[in-house]
Specification:
alpha/beta, Nucleotidyltransferase, domain 5, 2 domains, 5-stranded mixed β-sheet, 10 helices
Length: 334
């Protein structure tokens, strides 16, 4: 059977819905929340309230633009976690209500697995096994993907995620939230070798970004003692240097894993996968090491329901459904 599935994503501050038919994503409706900008980060309570306001509108738009009536749906999918508990509850509750009202099976999806499976929304797609560097504001992982639903985290951050490091550094620079994309923009005009920052060395394939954050904080403090306008005068070079350091840390572990496991199919996923510095350096490494690399479209890198839909498609084919009394899990792992 080739199913038609409605998928809902509400793990953080994007409310999203998507329809997948016969394995093809038909749309990807996303409502973002701008209210968090003035607070310098996502406020969980405000995020869950915004999801309540947006979810009906987003689902209706996904159904309308797909041209598929409700009675042709075969299942309802939702993000179970990881994410913000209040935000997850909104999506889970809505999905349960729809499944109960339409007498449809329910499919729970792991948000991080969905980021990996976003690579199967459009061609070209990676061949198994492949390594996926999953990088976002909440996670940094290297995942060995052996099949659509068979994945293993072989390396991950032991403290902060790389996306958080970008955003916290941007806040230190006085840039508005979300600051990661702004650092990327400034970095394009700067010298990546202008400044160096120390980082924490981890064994194996694991990451640590707390050290470089501390180093960056003290660097700015010391430089501003000498020149109060140091940041304003050197913004492009500071951003380029920080970004180069963070990208180097990511690719160092990814290369180590690829060599040790003998894998040449390499993918990146998550919001930080949209970073131009990471994409450029990944392509450079691919040319040197003979990698075949895969990077999703930007809309499938950030939190979105299309990736939930493609994950749900493969779970449906395995008859992998869940009970109506299932609860969200904020710290769900692969």
């Amino acid at each position: 059977m080739h199913p038609v599935i409605l998928a809902i994503e509400s793990s953080c501050d994007e409310t999203s819905a998507s329809i997948i038919q016969h394995g093809k994503v038909l749309n990807n409706v996303i409502a973002s929340q701008s209210i968090h900008q003035k607070y310098g980060g996502v406020v969980p309570e405000l995020a869950s309230r915004a999801h309540q306001q947006n979810i009906l509108m987003v689902v209706n738009e996904a159904m309308t633009t797909s041209g598929i009536p409700f009675n042709e749906l075969n299942a309802i999918a939702f993000t179970r976690g990881p994410g913000l508990m209040g935000s997850l509850l909104v999506g889970v509750s809505f999905a349960k209500g729809m499944a109960l009202a339409l007498n449809l099976p329910l499919i729970e999806v792991n948000h991080m697995e969905a980021h990996v499976l976003a690579h199967f929304i459009q061609k070209p797609v990676p061949a198994f096994p492949f390594l996926c560097l999953t990088v976002s504001g909440g996670h940094t992982q290297i995942v060995l993907v052996e099949d659509y639903l068979k994945m293993k985290v072989i390396g991950e951050t032991q403290d902060d995620a790389v996306g958080e490091a970008f955003d916290k550094a941007a806040k230190m620079l006085g840039l508005p939230y979300p600051g990661g994309p702004l650092i990327d923009q400034y970095a394009k005009q700067g010298n990546p070798k202008a400044f160096k920052f120390s980082d924490t060395s981890m064994s194996g394939f694991d990451f640590s970004f707390s050290g470089i954050k501390t180093s960056f904080l003290y660097f700015l403090r010391d430089q501003k003692k000498i020149d109060p306008y140091f940041v304003e005068k050197n913004m492009a070079d500071i951003c380029a240097s920080l970004q180069a350091n963070l990208v180097k840390m990511l690719l160092k572990k990814l290369k180590l894993a690829a060599v040790e496991l003998g894998v040449k199919e390499i993918a990146i996923a998550g919001g930080v996968a949209a970073n131009s510095g990471l994409r450029t350096e990944l392509k450079n490494e691919a040319e040197k090491l003979g990698w075949r690399i895969y990077i999703p479209e930007f809309q499938y890198c950030t939190d979105n329901a299309a990736m939930i839909a493609i994950a749900a498609h493969y779970k449906f084919l395995k008859n992998d459904f869940c009970r109506l009394d299932i609860a969200p899990l904020a710290n769900l792992s692969i």
